[in-house]
Design a protein that fits this description.
Helix content: 25-40%
Structural class: alpha+beta
Distance between the termini: 39 Å
Strand content: 15-25%
Shape: globular
């Protein structure tokens, strides 16, 4: 599978393409493949961190169960600068907050599918990306989505 990487304020991010879709974003890549999709993904990630991109427009195909994909869809619809709680997503899916949190943790394309915009009812909640909650805080600060942290 073609893969590439890009240096960002939250570390080196790796992007993986399969069948003309982005399938993974991780923090463990030194790949440098070039395809039209990976070049566009790199461009959009750079624009996001420069503050010039409000939402990603990339073909995504995250692996996961039907339930996880439903959570990914809701997360993808959270606008930049806004947040939701695990409980709010759970209510939309007529379930409980804990499985929503587990689905957030299973998100294979963080940042682009913005699981960092999902908070617990009592604060930040977790983050499965490299750097954990500190990275989540950095992303929320970047988006001005959690003003009292700024």
């Amino acid at each position: 599978m073609p893969a590439t990487s890009i240096e960002t304020p939250v570390g080196r991010l790796g992007l993986v393409e399969r069948d003309d879709h982005i399938v993974t974003l991780n923090w463990v890549s030194d790949a440098d493949d070039e395809t039209p999709l990976l070049n566009e993904a790199r461009r959009q990630v750079a624009a996001y961190f420069e503050g010039a991109l409000q939402s990603f427009d990339l073909p995504l195909k995250p692996a996961g169960s039907d339930f996880q994909k439903a959570v990914f869809d809701i997360m993808s619809a959270i606008p930049l600068g806004e947040t939701m709680t695990y409980g709010q997503i759970a209510k939309k899916l007529e379930t409980f907050a804990q499985p929503v949190g587990q689905a957030c943790g299973a998100n294979p394309i963080p940042v682009i599918i913005p699981c960092h915009r999902v908070l617990s009812s009592s604060g930040l909640g977790g983050f499965s990306g490299a750097g954990g909650v500190e990275t989540k805080i950095s992303l929320l600060r970047h988006e001005n989505a959690y003003p009292f942290l700024i």
